[in-house]
Amino acid sequence: MEQKILLKESDVPRQWYNFAADLPTPLLPPLGPDGNPVSPDMLAPVFPMNLIEQEVSQERWIDIPDEILNILYRWRPAPLKRAVYLEQHLKTPARIYYKDESYSPPGSHKPNTAVAQAWYNKQFGIKRLTTETGAGQWGSALAFACKLLGLECKVFMVRISFEQKPFRKIMMQVWGANCVASPSSETNAGRKVLEQMPDTPGSLGIAISEAIEQAVTDPSGTTRYSLGSVLNHVLLHQTIIGLEAKKQLEYAGEKLPDVVIGCAGGGSNFAGLAFPFAAEKINGAEMTIIPVEPAACPTMTRAPFAYDFGDTACTTPLLAMYTLGHAFVPPPIHAGGLRYHGMAPLVCQAIVEGLLEPRSYHQNKCYEAALTWAATEGAICAPETSHAVAAAIDEAQKAREEGKEKVILLNYSGHGLMDLSGYDAFLAGKLTDYELPDEDLQKFTKELENLPKAEIRKTGKW
Amino acid sequence: MEQKILLKESDVPRQWYNFAADLPTPLLPPLGPDGNPVSPDMLAPVFPMNLIEQEVSQERWIDIPDEILNILYRWRPAPLKRAVYLEQHLKTPARIYYKDESYSPPGSHKPNTAVAQAWYNKQFGIKRLTTETGAGQWGSALAFACKLLGLECKVFMVRISFEQKPFRKIMMQVWGANCVASPSSETNAGRKVLEQMPDTPGSLGIAISEAIEQAVTDPSGTTRYSLGSVLNHVLLHQTIIGLEAKKQLEYAGEKLPDVVIGCAGGGSNFAGLAFPFAAEKINGAEMTIIPVEPAACPTMTRAPFAYDFGDTACTTPLLAMYTLGHAFVPPPIHAGGLRYHGMAPLVCQAIVEGLLEPRSYHQNKCYEAALTWAATEGAICAPETSHAVAAAIDEAQKAREEGKEKVILLNYSGHGLMDLSGYDAFLAGKLTDYELPDEDLQKFTKELENLPKAEIRKTGKW
Hints:
Two copies of one chain form a homodimer. By secondary structure, the first copy, chain A, is of the alpha/beta class. The first copy, chain A, has helices spanning 49-56, 66-72, 84-90, 111-123, 137-149, 159-164, 166-174, 188-196, 204-216, 232-251, 268-282, 299-302, 345-352, 363-376, 385-402, 421-427, 438-446, and strands spanning 4-5, 15-17, 61-63, 80-82, 95-100, 128-133, 152-158, 178-182, 223-225, 259-263, 288-294, 305-309, 318-322, 359-361, 407-412. The first copy, chain A, has 17 helices and 15 strands. A seven-stranded mixed sheet of chain A has the order 1-4-5-15-10-11-14, with helices on both faces. A four-stranded parallel sheet of chain A has the order 8-7-6-9, sandwiched between helices. In chain A, strands 2-3 form a two-stranded antiparallel ribbon. In chain A, strand 6 (128-133), helix 5 (137-149) and strand 7 form a beta-alpha-beta unit. Chain A starts with a strand and ends in a 16-residue tail after the last helix. In chain A, 62% of the residues are buried. The A-B interface holds A 2-4, 6, 8-10, 73-75, 85, 103, 105, 107, 144, 147-148, 166-167, 170-171, 173-176, 371, 374-380, 417-418, 420-421, 423-424, 427 and B 2-4, 6, 8-10, 73-75, 85, 103, 105, 107, 144, 147-148, 166-167, 170-171, 173-176, 371, 374-380, 417-418, 420-421, 423-424, 427.
């Protein structure tokens, strides 16, 4: 049997799958500062209307424009690989498949939505996009997409990453982006922070505020903001992952997987793989679907479901989600992409419904899994991806104990070649395991009490 | 038309192609310190006999063991891609294809031979391999191969790279290799240099001497040395690249390419792509085959064809090749893999025969080409690979001027994600163009006069 299940470009799905259309209980609406639902036109200064339409769409299938597919073909369709060497190592009867999203030029799944967002903005007459980035995966993906589509790109990179990860910054510059450390002196939000805390390492929350400010205050009206996860349209663009994987599993002679796994920071790579399978679960299929997060940032496993802001500066609409509170200060774990205080509302509502079974892991366990992966499958995974690998290993061992021939599918969301310092710390025995103390959880989530309450609604079917 | 021509694992060639069998004039023999040809058994302390047999083989086709294929399947077959976006940008009638060798876990073509060498060593009962590495591509490839096959791996990394490229070192450590800065205090060769020059930045020549010394002095006899380029068996293992590409061009409906291009440091990635096509040229096909080197290290374009040592310390046999002299000190260009003083004897004899048309480029031109590539094809190439890209762009422009629908094939030997500092220097306008001065060429090659002469033998057919 072939170890890789390849697709042709002509096999790539022509439509994205919109999970909102099948969600058993609809999403709670985003709320404005006055507590009333936000109407689409209120988002117009931030996002182009064509993406806002996708954000609120209830259509199950949304056509992927040919021009977007033509750009994605630079690396898509992504291979589905059977992890035969890991299986042998674990002596598991499980068949482990992984969708390899590391082949994109920036090295992760992020370009799937970066390209789509840049294309829709360009269609809408936008000339320039602003965004924020933490570890740099998202910033480099948007830089890449803007370069290929001829848009300007401005990235506010969290200062500590800007200084510690010069290579990510160079990568963005190779693709022509203007990348500055955040907080910067270019925005009111940045200047205000710098006045109070000149030596601040920065945060994703501050960087988001700066990026949004630059987008909405451009007098020409041709700048918009772009977000790499959390929002419905971002997750929509990532469903190409799961749709391809579904076809590939069929080609491999498999029925539906028994277990579907992805790491989840804002939720986009997880949802991209999982939602097309979650649709089958809604239709009656039995399946365990596991989003994995760090124990240091336990949004899905320990935080309340509540209305909260997306950024620290409280400039975004309120979203109903599991949240550690917008003031949450994540510990310095190496999986920079998994340190967000909230989680995509679509993922959260699916958790509320009982469709997903979130799980958290300590970072040492994840690096151990990553080393096992490197020693068997060969590749070095991103620190974020190592969470999915760790869960897959656990599930494969469980299958061995149960003596069951399960099919396990995971999203290999990116490679770790730009993030090797975490491996270095782990190999030197210097990596610390953080687990959020209860008192911190209570402190950060206390502020949620002053915000509108998010109603828990579920059908009780799962 | 599909932009990527994919193969199945079952399409991967089952035999390597040995160019030595078809070379119109045979290679001059390697010579020992006494000026007499080296017999295979004299190499036995350094290499296992099964690889020495490959080194001297005249068989045209050599079977690839299934177990090696099974390891290569982790990333092979490598896609052949049509560079449609670059073609559009250049407005060329040429069709540009590139063989993408950047998909291997270490990120280059190097694992094709690292896996084969580690496997043959293991078959021969060897437990541990030693090697040297400059920029780190080869060291990480051998670390990777040894990890998958359960061998120990010791890498002597040129000190300046060891200090400037900590991520390559971490990569090797993730794959379990022991990587030390060279010169080290672990060998006589290293200690001797350190006594005389405690602050030396090190060199590939010194690192080779250290690696060979550790291999031949292991009292258990279970350590051997492994080289990442230059030698016949290394080039042999790389021919899988060209054999795959040939099949892929057929699948794309193309006849033979008009132009074949690869960058050449020691010659292995170039030969891997080019030799299966050079065989067709020997059989009468018209084709321009271009190995590309840096103007700073102009081995093929300006150096004499002569017998010379492979290392600075003069411990290897003498090889007949184009050489800048074993004492050559390369300038600090960013394409670390193209700074070797010599060149694979098989490539050199093909040049002597007139089968190849070597060319040299300045590094600024190469980085400019790399940025054009990133802006069109999307990916960030290795500094070495940028030489092939620059030549392909020149050839595509020439095709436009001539109004010819040429087929251009290049080897995309690796990605540049671990080598971004050269891009940084280029973008900042701080990159210097080095061209070897005539007086330096004369100085370094003067020592060759004291060595046996290499006879220029050619059929005169090309």
